[in-house]
Amino acid sequence: MTTLFLICGLPGAGKTTLAKQLEFSHSALRLCPDEWITSILADVTDTVEMDRLRTPVESIQWEVAKRALTLGADVILENGFWSREERDSYRAQAEALGAHVKLIYLDVERDELWARLKKRNENLPPGTFAVREDQLDLWLSWFQPPTADEFE
Length: 152
What we know:
Elements: E1 3-8, H1 15-25, E2 29-31, H2 33-40, H3 47-70, E3 75-80, H4 84-96, E4 100-105, H5 110-122, H6 133-142
Parallel strand pairs: 1-3, 1-4, 2-3
Helix pairs in contact: 2-3, 5-6
């Protein structure tokens, strides 16, 4: 049975680091929206265009992921999965394809997230964006942490 890994957490939580480890340990297809967006975005500081691209990139990656799952490959999505509704939707669709779903939540305190992001902002790795402190605080207000019933 194939597995869909949903990596849940805010920027700076370590989603990409963990996803890359899983990619190798499970020989899985890893799909990271930020990496695709930075490769097509002309100006990485253009947050309006970045936000506009997020939904279509995530949609395309989900189509690729579903096909890979049906072909027998494990898939890792590191979208962040900030809402219960989004997590439930991906879970239901993957299970309908016969895949097992494993939600992994990287729970990192706000001050630690900001410390990591501040450091990352100084020397951005490829496939990442700078994050301002006010953005982090806004996103924290939107984030719905997973509840116990969402885990296996």
